[in-house]
Specification:
Layout lengths: L2 H13 L23 E5 L8 H13 L3 E4 L14 H13 L5 E4 L15 H6 L3 E4 L4 H11 L3 E3 L9 H11 L6 E2 L17 E4 L2 E10 H7 L12 E7 L3 H13 L8 E8 L12 H9 L6 E3 L12 E3 L2 E5 L4 E4 L6
Parallel strand pairs: 1-2, 1-3, 3-4, 4-5, 8-9, 9-10, 10-11
Antiparallel strand pairs: 5-12, 6-14, 7-11, 8-13, 13-14
Helix pairs in contact: 7-8, 8-9
Protein backbone atom coordinates (compact mmCIF):
# COMPACT_ATOMS: atom_id res chain seq x y z
CA UNK A 1 0.00 0.00 0.00
CA UNK A 2 1.49 3.38 -0.97
CA UNK A 3 1.68 6.29 1.48
CA UNK A 4 -1.18 8.21 -0.13
CA UNK A 5 -3.53 5.22 0.16
CA UNK A 6 -2.36 4.59 3.71
CA UNK A 7 -3.15 8.15 4.78
CA UNK A 8 -6.55 8.04 3.07
CA UNK A 9 -7.45 4.79 4.81
CA UNK A 10 -6.19 6.05 8.15
CA UNK A 11 -8.25 9.24 7.91
CA UNK A 12 -11.36 7.40 6.75
CA UNK A 13 -11.08 4.97 9.64
CA UNK A 14 -10.66 7.82 12.12
CA UNK A 15 -13.76 9.60 10.83
CA UNK A 16 -15.73 6.35 11.28
CA UNK A 17 -14.70 6.20 14.92
CA UNK A 18 -12.06 3.49 14.85
CA UNK A 19 -8.46 3.22 13.78
CA UNK A 20 -6.39 0.42 12.23
CA UNK A 21 -3.26 -0.60 14.08
CA UNK A 22 -1.04 1.33 11.66
CA UNK A 23 -3.10 4.54 11.67
CA UNK A 24 -0.94 6.34 14.23
CA UNK A 25 2.43 4.85 13.27
CA UNK A 26 3.94 8.32 12.87
CA UNK A 27 3.13 9.29 16.44
CA UNK A 28 4.79 12.39 17.93
CA UNK A 29 7.45 12.09 20.59
CA UNK A 30 6.13 11.68 24.09
CA UNK A 31 8.28 13.48 26.70
CA UNK A 32 9.46 11.78 29.88
CA UNK A 33 7.11 11.74 32.83
CA UNK A 34 7.70 13.92 35.88
CA UNK A 35 9.08 12.43 39.07
CA UNK A 36 9.48 13.92 42.55
CA UNK A 37 12.69 15.91 42.72
CA UNK A 38 12.65 16.83 39.02
CA UNK A 39 13.53 20.39 38.03
CA UNK A 40 11.05 22.69 36.30
CA UNK A 41 12.22 25.43 33.98
CA UNK A 42 9.88 28.35 34.71
CA UNK A 43 9.31 30.70 31.77
CA UNK A 44 7.12 33.76 31.09
CA UNK A 45 6.23 33.73 27.39
CA UNK A 46 3.41 36.26 27.50
CA UNK A 47 2.22 39.04 29.84
CA UNK A 48 4.26 40.82 32.47
CA UNK A 49 4.13 39.85 36.14
CA UNK A 50 4.28 43.04 38.21
CA UNK A 51 4.31 41.65 41.74
CA UNK A 52 7.21 39.51 42.96
CA UNK A 53 4.80 37.93 45.45
CA UNK A 54 3.02 36.24 42.52
CA UNK A 55 6.29 34.62 41.48
CA UNK A 56 6.97 33.58 45.08
CA UNK A 57 3.57 31.90 45.36
CA UNK A 58 4.20 30.08 42.08
CA UNK A 59 7.56 28.81 43.33
CA UNK A 60 6.00 27.61 46.56
CA UNK A 61 3.31 25.75 44.61
CA UNK A 62 5.91 23.87 42.57
CA UNK A 63 7.94 23.08 45.67
CA UNK A 64 4.78 21.76 47.35
CA UNK A 65 4.53 19.30 44.45
CA UNK A 66 7.99 17.98 45.31
CA UNK A 67 9.63 19.74 42.38
CA UNK A 68 12.69 21.95 42.10
CA UNK A 69 12.58 25.16 40.06
CA UNK A 70 14.99 26.99 37.81
CA UNK A 71 13.61 30.44 36.97
CA UNK A 72 14.30 31.78 33.50
CA UNK A 73 16.55 34.88 33.49
CA UNK A 74 13.86 37.08 31.94
CA UNK A 75 10.79 35.90 33.87
CA UNK A 76 10.39 39.20 35.74
CA UNK A 77 11.42 41.46 32.85
CA UNK A 78 9.06 44.23 31.74
CA UNK A 79 8.57 45.48 28.20
CA UNK A 80 5.27 47.34 28.13
CA UNK A 81 2.59 44.76 28.83
CA UNK A 82 4.96 41.91 27.97
CA UNK A 83 7.32 39.93 30.22
CA UNK A 84 10.37 41.19 28.35
CA UNK A 85 11.37 41.55 24.72
CA UNK A 86 10.37 38.82 22.28
CA UNK A 87 13.87 37.42 21.72
CA UNK A 88 14.56 37.37 25.46
CA UNK A 89 11.37 35.50 26.29
CA UNK A 90 12.03 33.04 23.47
CA UNK A 91 15.62 32.58 24.62
CA UNK A 92 14.38 31.47 28.05
CA UNK A 93 12.29 28.75 26.40
CA UNK A 94 15.11 27.61 24.12
CA UNK A 95 17.54 27.58 27.03
CA UNK A 96 15.17 25.53 29.18
CA UNK A 97 14.88 22.84 26.51
CA UNK A 98 18.64 22.86 25.98
CA UNK A 99 19.46 22.62 29.70
CA UNK A 100 20.10 18.99 30.64
CA UNK A 101 19.36 19.80 34.30
CA UNK A 102 15.78 20.87 33.47
CA UNK A 103 13.20 18.08 33.17
CA UNK A 104 10.09 20.03 32.13
CA UNK A 105 9.09 23.57 31.14
CA UNK A 106 6.11 25.33 32.74
CA UNK A 107 4.61 28.70 31.82
CA UNK A 108 4.14 31.15 34.67
CA UNK A 109 1.06 32.83 33.19
CA UNK A 110 -0.79 33.66 29.98
CA UNK A 111 -2.17 37.00 28.86
CA UNK A 112 -0.80 38.00 25.45
CA UNK A 113 2.49 37.79 23.61
CA UNK A 114 3.34 34.12 23.17
CA UNK A 115 2.60 34.15 19.43
CA UNK A 116 5.24 36.83 18.96
CA UNK A 117 7.87 34.29 20.03
CA UNK A 118 7.21 31.71 17.33
CA UNK A 119 9.79 32.99 14.80
CA UNK A 120 12.48 32.86 17.51
CA UNK A 121 11.90 29.34 18.84
CA UNK A 122 14.45 26.66 17.92
CA UNK A 123 12.12 23.82 16.97
CA UNK A 124 15.00 21.53 15.97
CA UNK A 125 16.46 21.98 19.46
CA UNK A 126 13.09 21.26 21.05
CA UNK A 127 12.62 18.18 18.88
CA UNK A 128 16.00 16.81 19.96
CA UNK A 129 15.34 17.56 23.64
CA UNK A 130 11.66 16.70 24.17
CA UNK A 131 10.30 17.78 27.54
CA UNK A 132 6.89 18.38 29.07
CA UNK A 133 5.68 21.88 28.20
CA UNK A 134 2.65 22.98 30.24
CA UNK A 135 0.40 26.03 30.03
CA UNK A 136 -2.87 27.33 28.63
CA UNK A 137 -4.73 30.43 27.44
CA UNK A 138 -2.23 32.53 25.44
CA UNK A 139 0.24 29.63 25.70
CA UNK A 140 -2.04 27.79 23.22
CA UNK A 141 0.02 29.13 20.32
CA UNK A 142 3.23 27.62 21.72
CA UNK A 143 1.63 24.27 22.54
CA UNK A 144 0.30 23.78 19.02
CA UNK A 145 3.38 25.20 17.30
CA UNK A 146 5.73 22.87 19.18
CA UNK A 147 3.52 19.91 18.28
CA UNK A 148 3.32 21.05 14.64
CA UNK A 149 6.97 21.99 14.13
CA UNK A 150 8.91 19.84 16.63
CA UNK A 151 6.56 16.82 16.64
CA UNK A 152 6.49 16.71 20.45
CA UNK A 153 3.38 16.23 22.62
CA UNK A 154 2.62 19.33 24.72
CA UNK A 155 0.14 19.89 27.54
CA UNK A 156 -2.80 22.28 27.76
CA UNK A 157 -3.24 22.70 31.49
CA UNK A 158 -2.77 25.09 34.38
CA UNK A 159 -0.19 27.83 34.29
CA UNK A 160 1.90 27.91 37.46
CA UNK A 161 0.02 31.01 38.70
CA UNK A 162 -3.28 29.09 38.42
CA UNK A 163 -5.20 27.87 41.47
CA UNK A 164 -4.00 24.37 42.31
CA UNK A 165 -7.14 22.89 43.85
CA UNK A 166 -7.53 19.13 44.26
CA UNK A 167 -9.22 18.54 40.90
CA UNK A 168 -6.64 20.55 38.96
CA UNK A 169 -3.61 19.19 40.80
CA UNK A 170 -4.67 15.54 40.80
CA UNK A 171 -5.62 15.72 37.13
CA UNK A 172 -2.20 17.11 36.26
CA UNK A 173 -0.43 14.45 38.35
CA UNK A 174 -2.40 11.67 36.69
CA UNK A 175 -1.26 12.79 33.23
CA UNK A 176 2.28 14.06 33.88
CA UNK A 177 3.53 12.04 36.89
CA UNK A 178 1.53 8.82 36.83
CA UNK A 179 1.56 8.43 33.03
CA UNK A 180 -2.06 7.28 32.90
CA UNK A 181 -4.28 7.14 29.85
CA UNK A 182 -6.69 9.55 31.51
CA UNK A 183 -10.46 9.71 31.12
CA UNK A 184 -11.92 13.22 31.17
CA UNK A 185 -15.45 13.46 32.52
CA UNK A 186 -17.14 16.13 34.58
CA UNK A 187 -17.73 15.74 38.32
CA UNK A 188 -21.38 15.55 39.27
CA UNK A 189 -22.25 18.28 41.75
CA UNK A 190 -25.85 18.36 42.96
CA UNK A 191 -25.50 20.51 46.09
CA UNK A 192 -28.82 21.21 47.83
CA UNK A 193 -30.97 20.57 44.79
CA UNK A 194 -32.91 17.84 43.06
CA UNK A 195 -30.71 17.95 39.95
CA UNK A 196 -27.14 18.85 39.06
CA UNK A 197 -26.76 22.42 37.81
CA UNK A 198 -22.97 22.73 37.71
CA UNK A 199 -20.60 21.15 35.20
CA UNK A 200 -23.37 20.17 32.80
CA UNK A 201 -22.52 18.62 29.43
CA UNK A 202 -24.51 19.75 26.39
CA UNK A 203 -24.34 17.42 23.40
CA UNK A 204 -24.42 19.16 20.03
CA UNK A 205 -23.92 16.11 17.80
CA UNK A 206 -23.96 12.67 19.42
CA UNK A 207 -21.46 10.06 18.33
CA UNK A 208 -17.96 8.76 18.87
CA UNK A 209 -14.66 9.69 17.21
CA UNK A 210 -10.97 8.98 17.49
CA UNK A 211 -8.10 11.29 16.56
CA UNK A 212 -5.08 13.25 17.70
CA UNK A 213 -5.84 16.19 19.96
CA UNK A 214 -5.24 19.77 18.87
CA UNK A 215 -6.59 23.02 20.23
CA UNK A 216 -6.84 25.26 23.24
CA UNK A 217 -7.94 28.87 23.32
CA UNK A 218 -10.25 29.71 20.39
CA UNK A 219 -8.83 33.21 19.94
CA UNK A 220 -5.29 31.85 19.57
CA UNK A 221 -6.28 28.91 17.38
CA UNK A 222 -8.12 31.16 14.94
CA UNK A 223 -5.13 33.54 14.90
CA UNK A 224 -2.77 30.66 13.99
CA UNK A 225 -4.79 29.72 10.90
CA UNK A 226 -2.79 30.32 7.73
CA UNK A 227 0.56 30.24 9.54
CA UNK A 228 3.12 27.41 9.44
CA UNK A 229 2.47 26.86 13.15
CA UNK A 230 -1.08 25.51 12.87
CA UNK A 231 -1.16 21.75 13.50
CA UNK A 232 -2.53 19.17 11.07
CA UNK A 233 -6.29 19.12 11.56
CA UNK A 234 -7.02 16.07 9.38
CA UNK A 235 -8.84 13.54 11.53
CA UNK A 236 -8.11 15.49 14.70
CA UNK A 237 -10.26 15.99 17.77
CA UNK A 238 -10.33 19.76 18.21
CA UNK A 239 -10.84 21.13 21.72
CA UNK A 240 -11.64 24.81 22.25
CA UNK A 241 -12.19 27.22 25.14
CA UNK A 242 -12.21 30.98 25.65
CA UNK A 243 -12.83 33.75 28.14
CA UNK A 244 -14.41 37.20 28.12
CA UNK A 245 -15.27 37.29 24.42
CA UNK A 246 -18.39 38.79 22.90
CA UNK A 247 -20.58 36.20 21.21
CA UNK A 248 -20.19 37.85 17.80
CA UNK A 249 -16.44 37.42 18.17
CA UNK A 250 -16.88 33.72 18.93
CA UNK A 251 -19.02 33.57 15.78
CA UNK A 252 -16.31 35.35 13.78
CA UNK A 253 -13.56 33.03 15.03
CA UNK A 254 -15.60 29.89 14.38
CA UNK A 255 -16.31 31.25 10.90
CA UNK A 256 -12.56 31.66 10.39
CA UNK A 257 -12.00 28.02 11.32
CA UNK A 258 -14.81 27.01 8.98
CA UNK A 259 -13.72 29.07 5.96
CA UNK A 260 -10.11 27.96 6.35
CA UNK A 261 -11.22 24.33 6.10
CA UNK A 262 -10.24 23.37 9.64
CA UNK A 263 -13.74 22.45 10.83
CA UNK A 264 -14.30 20.34 7.74
CA UNK A 265 -11.21 18.24 8.50
CA UNK A 266 -11.69 17.31 12.15
CA UNK A 267 -13.26 14.09 13.39
CA UNK A 268 -14.85 15.69 16.46
CA UNK A 269 -15.00 18.83 18.60
CA UNK A 270 -14.87 19.19 22.39
CA UNK A 271 -15.79 22.60 23.78
CA UNK A 272 -14.54 23.45 27.24
CA UNK A 273 -15.73 26.46 29.20
CA UNK A 274 -16.36 29.84 27.57
CA UNK A 275 -16.08 31.81 30.77
CA UNK A 276 -17.85 35.15 30.85
CA UNK A 277 -19.23 34.73 27.31
CA UNK A 278 -22.83 35.93 27.56
CA UNK A 279 -25.34 37.47 25.15
CA UNK A 280 -25.78 41.22 25.17
CA UNK A 281 -29.03 42.46 26.72
CA UNK A 282 -31.95 43.05 24.41
CA UNK A 283 -33.88 41.13 21.80
CA UNK A 284 -32.40 39.65 18.66
CA UNK A 285 -29.14 38.36 20.13
CA UNK A 286 -27.70 34.88 19.85
CA UNK A 287 -26.78 32.78 22.85
CA UNK A 288 -23.42 31.03 22.81
CA UNK A 289 -24.98 27.62 22.18
CA UNK A 290 -26.89 29.07 19.21
CA UNK A 291 -23.59 29.99 17.56
CA UNK A 292 -21.87 26.71 18.38
CA UNK A 293 -24.79 24.70 17.03
CA UNK A 294 -24.93 26.78 13.84
CA UNK A 295 -21.30 25.96 13.12
CA UNK A 296 -21.17 22.37 14.38
CA UNK A 297 -24.46 20.69 13.56
CA UNK A 298 -23.89 20.82 9.77
CA UNK A 299 -20.49 19.13 10.19
CA UNK A 300 -22.12 15.89 11.28
CA UNK A 301 -19.19 14.98 13.53
CA UNK A 302 -19.46 14.38 17.29
CA UNK A 303 -19.46 17.61 19.31
CA UNK A 304 -20.19 18.46 22.93
CA UNK A 305 -19.88 21.47 25.21
CA UNK A 306 -18.88 21.83 28.85
CA UNK A 307 -15.63 19.88 29.37
CA UNK A 308 -13.45 20.98 32.29
CA UNK A 309 -11.02 22.75 29.97
CA UNK A 310 -10.07 26.41 29.99
CA UNK A 311 -10.51 29.38 32.30
CA UNK A 312 -12.24 27.46 35.05
CA UNK A 313 -11.11 26.73 38.61
CA UNK A 314 -11.31 22.95 38.17
CA UNK A 315 -9.15 22.46 35.11
CA UNK A 316 -8.05 19.36 33.19
CA UNK A 317 -4.60 18.79 31.70
CA UNK A 318 -5.06 17.74 28.06
CA UNK A 319 -2.15 16.61 25.83
CA UNK A 320 -1.86 18.28 22.42
CA UNK A 321 -0.77 15.62 19.92
CA UNK A 322 -1.89 12.57 21.89
CA UNK A 323 -4.51 10.24 20.42
CA UNK A 324 -7.89 10.19 22.16
CA UNK A 325 -11.40 8.94 21.67
CA UNK A 326 -14.53 10.94 22.47
CA UNK A 327 -18.15 10.08 23.17
CA UNK A 328 -20.19 13.23 22.63
CA UNK A 329 -23.39 11.70 23.96
CA UNK A 330 -21.76 10.86 27.28
CA UNK A 331 -19.51 13.96 27.36
CA UNK A 332 -16.37 11.86 27.83
CA UNK A 333 -12.87 12.12 26.36
CA UNK A 334 -10.35 9.29 26.83
CA UNK A 335 -6.67 9.06 25.98
CA UNK A 336 -5.79 5.95 23.99
CA UNK A 337 -2.40 5.73 25.70
CA UNK A 338 -0.34 7.71 28.22
CA UNK A 339 0.94 11.04 26.88
CA UNK A 340 4.32 10.69 28.63
CA UNK A 341 6.77 7.82 28.79
Amino acid sequence: MDRRSLLQLSLASTLMGFAPSFAFADAPTRPKRLRPGDTIGLVAPASVTYESLQLQIALEALEAMGLKVKVGPHVMDRFGYLAGKDKDRASDINAAFADAQIDAVFALRGGWGASRLLPFLDFDLISKNPKIFLGYSDITSLLNAIYAKADVVTFHGPNVMSRWNEFTYEGMREVLFDARASTYSNPEVIDDDLVARKHRIQTINAGKATGHLIGGNLTLMSALVGTPYFPDARGAILFLEDVGEAIYRVDRMMTQLKLSGVLGQVSGIVFGHFTGVKPNPGLGNFALMDILRQHCEPLGVPCYFGAMIGHVEQQSTVPVGAVAEMDAGAGVLRLKEPAVR
